[in-house]
Specification:
single chain; 457 residues; mainly alpha; Cytochrome Bc1 Complex, Chain D, domain 2; 2 domains; 14 helices; 33% helix; binds heme C; EC 1.11.1.5; Cyt_c-like_dom; cytochrome-c peroxidase activity; peroxidase; iron
Length: 457
């Protein structure tokens, strides 16, 4: 290679590296940039980044509106139908299922939508809230949860219903105790006094209280227009469920592009034995403390100090938060019996009954998703990487998937989008995903039956 050309290549490289660092640099850090200048630069960068990201989403998914006329979430929001992940080439799903992982990898046939979904701004990472949540919290609490450097990416129709209902283990007789409202500091007493005890009420107050976080804080190293009091646990785990907010997994290497994680529901969290999708924590208390001190600051202890992290003074605060979380129940599943299964004697939904047979038989789902809550409380490595070549994903991070905890499937129709990073938009997508990843070779009719069973859970 002539020297000149090499220099250009190297130059390009260095430039790229520089802009990478430059983008993520906060105001004041090794530069004379003011907060206003920083904001303007980040806003400009956002336009381009979001354009690129939305184009990538369009490449991965069919985002059109195809709301079910019959299937709804617990409070009536229609479920979006159909497989939304786009096929790569002129192969059908059935043809793809006939191919071996090696063939699929060699020909780059693995659908992009089955690969890790990147954070909408992988360089910056952090928490990103949906427009729905931002507007509701602004209206009710006067807190602004929007960021100037990134906006939320998944259309509202693929998000959980809002505000989601909340069911308590101790008071199933009451049904939805949120009474269809967003639970916040301004109404929690009115809603919960006399229903739960004083400790649980205090735990709930703490779950609703905003605490400083990496992007939402009062320093100039923040991503909100105005100084922010922070985020509350229930901004993400709204009404004990999920608002579809995303965050980046705290990485041990600070400036590594972030991996995206979708907020899991806290419904039924007490039946779990491992906490966090990698199953590395053993109690709700441990996880709650981790959120406040570590996850909130992308694992950056220095930043946590600088931005006034709320370090729970007494272990008591975390214990009280856990007291309330342990009350959060799954939504009712009227068709299931005490063992968590459909009783053929009492059910006339033939498709769901056939789906149940498949779930426990040919489709092998029950080897990991065991009733009554449809989790074995173990981690499994689905080895998704065997289907594609590294570096081919649209994500800069291109993370491996690794061992992940089996999430419970009780109430699953209420929790789109699916998988740890929310890369699958519909339950049909999850059926195609497992059909391929587990090599099940299900027929079209069998896939339909399996779906009919999943929505009864
Ligand atoms: C981004 C918004 C967000 C906020 C704010 C948040 N969480 Fe989480 N929470 C998550 C995500 C994402 C995970 C999954 C982490 C993982 O996959 O490792 C999680 C996991 C959990 C879990 C484990 C659930 C499970 O199924 O394993 C608990 C318990 C929990 N959070 C409690 C809390 C508490 C308590 C607070 C407030 C101190 C809080 N969270 C604040 C997003 C959030
Ligand atoms: C080897 C164990 C295993 C088997 C078998 C299995 N799953 Fe899963 N399932 C998992 C794990 C682990 C995850 C989480 C993966 C992730 O987030 O990347 C998961 C996630 C899911 C999700 C998304 C849950 C959520 O909250 O986002 C659905 C739906 C699902 N599985 C359905 C099925 C169906 C249907 C079958 C049978 C066709 C099946 N699974 C078979 C382990 C398994």
């Amino acid at each position: 290679m002539p020297e000149k050309a090499l220099e250009t290549v190297l130059g390009g490289f260095v430039l790229l590296g520089l802009s990478f660092v430059g983008l993520s640099m906060s105001p004041g850090a090794a530069s004379a940039e003011s907060f206003e200048e920083f904001k303007t630069r980040m806003k400009d960068a956002k336009v381009l980044a979001m354009e690129r990201h939305l184009k990538a989403l369009d490449d991965r998914y069919d985002l059109s509106d195809d709301a079910s006329k019959t299937m709804t979430m617990t409070h009536g929001k229609p479920i979006q139908e159909g497989v939304r992940v786009k096929l790569r080439e002129v192969v059908t799903w059935d043809e793809l299922a006939e191919m071996s992982p090696e063939e699929i990898r060699k020909q780059d046939f693995f659908p992009k939508g089955f690969m890790p979904l990147p954070h909408p701004n992988p360089t910056e990472g952090g928490i990103v809230f949906s427009k729905t949540l931002i507007e509701a919290v602004e209206e009710q609490e006067g807190r602004d949860l929007s960021r100037f450097d990134v906006s939320f990416d998944i259309p509202e129709r693929f998000q959980p219903e809002f505000p989601p209902p909340l069911f308590l283990k101790t008071r199933p007789d009451l049904g939805d105790v949120s009474r269809s409202r967003l639970i916040t500091l301004s109404n929690y007493r009115e809603l919960f006094e006399g229903i739960i005890n004083a400790e649980q009420l205090e735990g709930l107050r703490l779950l609703l209280t905003p605490f400083p976080q990496q992007q939402f804080n009062a320093t100039e190293d923040r991503r909100t227009e105005d100084p922010s009091p922070g985020v509350a646990c229930f901004d993400c785990h709204v009404n004990g469920h999920t608002s579809a907010a995303i965050q980046s997994a705290s990485s041990t290497r600070p400036r590594e592009p972030s991996r995206r994680i979708d907020t899991p529901s806290l419904r039924g969290v007490d039946i779990q034995r491992l906490f966090g999708s990698q199953g590395d924590m053993k109690s709700i208390e441990e996880r709650s403390e981790f959120e406040l001190e570590t996850a909130y600051f992308d694992g950056d202890a220095e930043a946590a100090k600088r931005k006034d992290a709320h370090i729970p003074q007494q272990a008591d605060e975390v214990r009280l938060m856990a007291e309330f979380q342990k009350l959060i129940d799954f939504p009712p599943a009227p068709k299931l019996d005490a063992s968590g299964k459909l009783d053929p004697e009492k059910n006339d939904d033939e498709a769901a009954l056939r789906g149940q047979e498949l779930f426990f038989g040919k489709a092998r789902c029950a080897t990991c998703h065991t009733p009554p809550h449809y989790t074995d409380n173990q981690v499994h490595d689905l080895k998704v990487e065997q289907f594609y070549r590294p570096g081919i994903t649209t994500s800069q991070a291109a993370p491996t998937n690794g061992p992940i905890k089996t999430p419970p499937l009780r109430g699953i129709k209420d929790s789109p989008p699916y998988l740890r990073d929310g890369r699958l938009l519909t339950l049909e997508d999850t059926v195609e995903f497992f059909n391929l990843v587990l090599g099940l070779k299900l027929t079209k009719a069998e896939k339909k039956d399996l779906l009919a069973f999943l929505v009864t859970l």
